[in-house]
Amino acid sequence: MDFSRNDHPTPFRQRWRKLLAVFFTSVPLLSSVVRADPADDAQKKSLSGDYAGAVAAAQQSIKDSFPSEALTRVEAEALMAQGRYADAYSALLVGLPYATSSIRLRLLLHDACLYTGKSDEAQQVISSINNILNALAASAQYSSAPLSAQTLADAGEAALLQKTDPKVILERFLDPAQKATVPVRDAFLAAGRLELDKHDYNLASVSFANGLKAFPNDADMLEGLAAAFRESDRDQYAANAKLALAANPSHVPTLLLNAENLIDAESYDKAGDTLDHILSINSKQPEALALKAVIAYLHNPPDQAAANAQAYRDKALLTWKKNPRVDYIIGQKLSQNYRFTLGVKYQRLALANDPDFIPARVQLAQDLLRLGQEDDGWAMAEEAHTADGYDIEAFNLVTLHDEISQYTAIPTDHFRLVMEPAEATVYSARVLALLEKARATVAKKYGLDLTFPVLVEVFPNTSDFSVRTFGMPDIGEFLGVTFGPVVTINAPGSHESNWEDVLWHEFTHVVTLTLTKNQMPRWLSEGISVYEEAQADPSWGEHMTPDARERILAGKMHPISNMSSAYLEAKDVHDTQFAYYESMLVVQFLIEHYGFDHLQALLHSLGDGTLMNDALAKNFAPLSQLDDSFAKYATDLAKKYAPAWDFTPPAPDTSGGDLAALSTLLPPELANKLTRPAVPAPAPVSSNAKNFFQRLDDIQKIADQDDWAKARDQLKELTTGDFYLPGPDNPYLLLAQACRKLNDSAGEKSALLTVAAHEADSLPAMSRLLEIAQSEKNWADVAKWGEAVFEIHPMAPTAWRALLDAHEQLGQKAPGIEAGLALISLEPPDLASLNYRVARMLQPTDTDGARRHVLQALENAPRFVAAYDLLSILPPAPAPAPAATPATAPSTPATP
Q1: Structure confidence at residue 657 as a pLDDT band (50, 70, 90)
Q2: How many whole angstroms from its chain centre is CA 46?
């Protein structure tokens, strides 16, 4: 443990380590005695946001008595909150002689020095704090006098300045101060903020929640809890932020969080209003000015953006010229808006001001990795972890690097594909082929000449994918994410989606982000990607559903001018899915009404720096006209979707009965992978016979009684009309089952084909169609449906075995060899047979390969007669060339 800065001599550091161990493990806590304090009234005003009133009350009490530690602290904190840093500095100098051993006042003085340009004096303050800590540690060896909980909490915060081991700070300083007879507010706040800084959001939420138990309705605690939930639980975030501002309407940290959220929602004007409110409280507030710089980049014309941002940055650094948080915040928010190159620039500026500022190192590592600069990115992550072993994000990245370094990297002219070795062996060639097809199709369509190789990383472990993508495990349910030159994908085995569909979607992001120089809103990027899915294959992408119909007709759709809010306001997977659908619908509307060339022009306008709504008006029509026309377009589509049916959702069925029925369509090794997604909280089902779900439930009950003929007749009625319902409530799967029970092969196949035409990720339908084709020995269909199963589960032997059989029968040797080799790599029990079959297909064109595989067949099965027969007709292997005789070197006369 090193409790001092590196510029202190080694003996001092050793002495501090020894004395601290003695002191903080042997001294009991002093129970605080509750007394009336003249600072209480001033502190209440400060905590409620009446900073001017707090200053006045504190100064009056000082005038009436003397500048006690408590009064000086309240006065200085309230002055700092208003940006009156020089006044706070003066007040602290007046108060310190009355509290000569106060760590807390010196912590405040340290900050006041930084914000008044006295960096040298700030270092001297740290030295004076060290002297106090040394004196306390020394006295602990000879005295049993207890240390107050407040002093312990103050010492813990002081130890943070010394880059002390966070575990030591929490266990020996802050935890005991929290558990004292009278808990210390500062201890909860310091612990929670430390945990937030280290990206330990779960532990931070516990610290702040415990703090609220001891200090109810405390704005600082509520804001900390909001920050801890900001990325994981939007409702918890919003509720706690609202409570914080109710307790203190001028609470700057909460207002800053809200401003960031508004920026994320592209509500730049509202974010600017919130920041103006902060600056009315403290005109020098650096984080608010940093966010103003971010808005300048995101919401200013290109010829003004950089200059305006620089002006706000300069103002943010006026008080503390080397404040690393200013550039860190600017860079972080720009990176969150996919401006990674700018993000890198600002993190480097932050580190130039403070090379030890770990948050900037971690963010820089992430930005470099998202730009595809892997060597520099991983090196920066390692540096951050070495400097701070307790930063969870840095630790996650370093751990992931150890894992990903074992992956297989396959470079081509256009891509660099990184996959887990076993998966790479099986289907990396297919991934690269699809990427090349997408490049030739989508990039060409949008007129983009990609001049850089795209990095594509495929992760079989969802936590590894999440760490690579977000820095933390278990962030959302994403199938893939694209940063521009870098694509990260969850491997197909981790989800029940069509991986080709997912990859096509993500590559489309590469195209649109590159065209716009990453200057496009999420909704447009997602909308184009979903639209292009359906253009590539009608069974891909998002389509109208009962849920989408009801939302549109209920007026819950977002206007084009505010489409970005659809993603920020999403509270569950259903909201997010609808956001994807309505984004796609906007793109479809724009193309149908104005033409694809106008969409291309929109992307080029965004790339030139034109603001989104201005670009829409420039390339299509005024926003109000677009909003009205789109609303009518979507409403007309919704009204045409199954107008005769009521789709009020039923109560969720937890019995799993429908899944049990559907699982009969799957082969055994895949049946256990079928799961039912969560459904939204239902409304009561009407007794109307036209309620679709009620009718389906009634038919399921008929089927449960084995009256399959009646069930089939009613299912045929249910499936009439020009609409399709995807998902587990799809009646076509039940219709297929009914037809199968009745030996109605044509009816079963027709129902399954309908599913396959609409849902490329329906494993039950694809698997059953494959089974039917195999029973009919329709080898063309076996190949077709084998491919369909492969597109969902490329590591499943079922698909590859079907493809091997089909291509053998069709005489298609190249794809047959591919399927055989994939099966061999999966190591099924019939390796001898598989090697023999591959050898037979290789025989006409590759006798060396044929010989190798037939010998492997014999190694697995030494009595394999057919393998011996094949080996006997293969030409013998060429004799190895004789080893070259090394030339004799001329003798060299010995040197005397």
Answers
A1: very low
A2: 37
